[in-house]
């Protein structure tokens, strides 16, 4: 399907310039798409590795909590951990990967300097509770990294899809339209030139005959 334009030399020049720009844009977008896919695959691998590790650690921590609950009882367990020794907030910034702004997350821990991570005395608590809290404390940075990577994967996937649509629009719609229109105008101009040449030859022939 060609574009609806007048078959003139001026239009032909404009369309040829547009075709050059479209082909250049297509190449740049295709290169971007390929690079995004490479980074996306790397992130997916990292995401899977982190998820397996985090799930294993969380499972172990849950087992420790269940053991602590069995030894201490629910009420004593809740009383032991009801008052945390520190508060944690989240600081979020961004970094740019191939024009995609992915989040960078960082924990801000607030509490007494040198304070223990255990918000209780050891007299009435079990070693299993100590182990569970220690595991959770150590796994928090990995959980945060997993959240970062998963969000980055989602944003990269969205950008890949947008880029793919643009590449396809250029490759299967715009560039073929421009090529078809250029071909049509070129044929029309050549046809007009042949018609003009035929008329000139007829005029010349008539003038020679009269002469």
From TrEMBL:
Q: Which GO terms describe its biological process?
A: proton motive force-driven plasma membrane ATP synthesis
Gene3D superfamilies from the UniProt entry: 1.10.287.3240
- For this entry, the protein name equals V-type ATP synthase subunit D
Alphabetical keyword list? ATP synthesis, Hydrogen ion transport, Hydrolase, Ion transport, Transport
Gene Ontology molecular function, alphabetical: ATP binding; hydrolase activity; proton-transporting ATP synthase activity, rotational mechanism; proton-transporting ATPase activity, rotational mechanism
Specify the superkingdom. Answer: Bacteria
Q: Which HAMAP family match?
A: ATP_synth_D_arch
Name the job this protein performs: Produces ATP from ADP in the presence of a proton gradient across the membrane.
Q: Which InterPro entries match?
A: V_ATPase_D
Pfam families registered for this protein in UniProt = ATP-synt_D (PF01813)
| Record has Electron transport as a keyword | no
* Residues in the signal sequence: none
Its family? Belongs to the V-ATPase D subunit family.
């Amino acid at each position: 399907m060609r574009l609806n334009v007048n078959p003139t030399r001026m239009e032909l020049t404009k369309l040829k310039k547009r075709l050059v720009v479209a082909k250049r844009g297509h190449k740049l977008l295709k290169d971007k798409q390929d690079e995004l896919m490479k980074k996306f695959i790397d992130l997916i691998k990292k995401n899977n590795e982190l998820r397996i590790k985090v799930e294993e650690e969380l499972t172990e921590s849950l087992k420790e909590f269940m053991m602590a609950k069995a030894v201490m009882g629910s009420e004593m367990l809740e009383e032991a951990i009801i008052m945390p020794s520190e508060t944690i907030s989240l600081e979020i910034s961004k970094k740019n990967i191939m024009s995609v702004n992915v989040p960078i997350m960082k924990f801000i821990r607030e509490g007494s300097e040198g304070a223990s991570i255990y918000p209780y005395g050891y007299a009435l608590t079990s070693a299993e509770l100590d182990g569970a809290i220690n595991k959770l404390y150590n796994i928090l940075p990995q959980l945060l990294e997993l959240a970062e990577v998963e969000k980055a994967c989602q944003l990269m996937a969205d950008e890949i899809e947008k880029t793919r649509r643009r590449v396809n629009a250029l490759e299967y719609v715009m560039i073929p339209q421009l090529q078809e229109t250029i071909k049509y105008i070129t044929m029309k101009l050549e046809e007009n030139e042949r018609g003009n040449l035929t008329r000139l030859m007829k005029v010349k022939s008539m003038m020679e005959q009269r002469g």
